[in-house]
Amino acid sequence: MEHTNYHLEAVVDALVRAGNRFSPLPPGNGPGPFWSTQGGPVCYMEAPIDFAVARAVPDQPAELEFYEATDSIFCPLCWTPINGPGYRAPTVWDLGQMTLGVKVEPDPEK
User: Fold this and answer.
1) Can you give the pLDDT of all 110 residues of the chain as single tens digits?
2) DSSP code, position 68
3) Are 85 and 46 a contacting pair, CB within 8 Å?
4) What span, in angstroms and rounded, lies between the C-alpha atoms of 9 and 60?
5) pLDDT per residue over 58-71, tens digit each?
6) Are strands 65-67 and 80-83 parallel, antiparallel or unpaired?
7) N or C: which end of the chain has fewer CB within 10 A?
8) Distance in angstroms (rounded) separating the CA atoms of residues 10 and 53
9) For residue range 68-89, what is the model confidence (pLDDT) as tens digits?
10) How far apart are CA 110 and CA 99, in angstroms?
11) pTM recorded for the entire structure
């Protein structure tokens, strides 16, 4: 499957040059670094993302979103994340909303 996230390869390359490694694809699924998943392509890094290195990559899209708290970089142009081992997908509880759009207020007694 062709991917349209070539602009992220420079970020992955910079992270690899800085000592990180991307998780290899299972045999027969392409050369990597992006895995094809049901939700679209994703790159899994083996060590935590060095955000200083990632931000220093020249000519990257201004739209890139850096989430240091969840060890992830996300590109809304191609809907592709680069996830470190500390990545945890946000849940409705993190966002403060249920899937039906109901706002969940924090319990003041906690």
Assistant:
1) 355 788 899 999 999 999 999 987 766 666 678 887 777 888 999 999 999 999 999 988 889 999 998 999 999 988 899 999 999 776 666 555 555 555 556 667 76
2) G
3) yes
4) 10
5) 988 889 999 998 99
6) unpaired
7) C
8) 11
9) 989 999 999 888 999 999 997 7
10) 23
11) 0.75
Structure tokens at 32: 């990597």
Query: How many Cα atoms sit within 13 Å of 77 on the Cβ side?
Result: 12
Q: Which amino acid is at 28?
A: G
How many C-beta atoms surround the C-beta of residue 9 within 10 A?
Answer: 13
Residue with tokens 């935590």: 48
- Joined together, the tokens standing for residue 46 give 């083996």
How many angstroms separate the CA atoms of 29 and 94, rounded? Answer: 33
For 68, the token pair is 């240091």
